[in-house]
Design goal:
The protein has 155 residues and is mainly alpha-helical. It has one domain. Helix content is 76%, strand content 0%. Helix 1 packs across helix 3, helix 2 packs antiparallel against helix 3 and helix 4 runs antiparallel to helix 5. The protein is flat.
Length: 155
């Protein structure tokens, strides 16, 4: 039986990261949500487990400087709120990268599992592409919507 703490702080980020290729197929919501959850859990794990080695490298220092430049650029732009909306939470990508690094270090089979899910996702996308090309339907049976650009340009 897996304890609740082990599931939340170890298995949940593992599963969310492994299913990231599938989440990317479904759209931006699930992938952004799992990316943010993994980053937050890594942040909590790093404070609980004293994981300072992940923060003491050139990547993190470069990303902090880069993030500060983006924020300053957003503050001095003509459209501050619009620009800040897309750049303020950019640090989540660095936290996700550190979370993946932690998962690779803590789970020796992580890369094998990730390769398997990535390969399966890629296979499904390629199969769906062939089905759409030859049968004008996607893998779940929805018909393709095609635009006749020649007729649109003639109007």
């Amino acid at each position: 039986m897996v304890s609740r703490s082990k599931f939340i702080f170890h298995l949940l980020p593992l599963y969310l990261t492994l299913f990231m290729p599938i989440f990317l197929i479904t759209g931006p919501f699930l992938s952004d949500l799992s990316l943010s959850v993994c980053g937050l859990i890594f942040l909590i794990n790093s404070f609980r487990g004293n994981l300072k080695k992940y923060y003491n490298n050139y990547f993190v220092k470069f990303f902090i400087i880069f993030n500060l430049i983006i924020l300053i650029s957003s503050l001095v732009s003509d459209y501050e709120l619009f620009s800040l909306k897309s750049s303020f939470f950019y640090f989540r990508f660095a936290l996700f990268a550190l979370s993946v690094w932690y998962l690779i270090d803590s789970n020796k089979n992580f890369l094998i599992y990730f390769f398997f899910t990535l390969s399966c996702s890629f296979f499904v996308l390629v199969a769906d592409g062939f089905i759409q090309y030859f049968f004008n339907k996607n893998i779940i049976g929805l018909k393709l919507i095609t635009l006749n650009l020649y007729k649109i340009n003639q109007i």
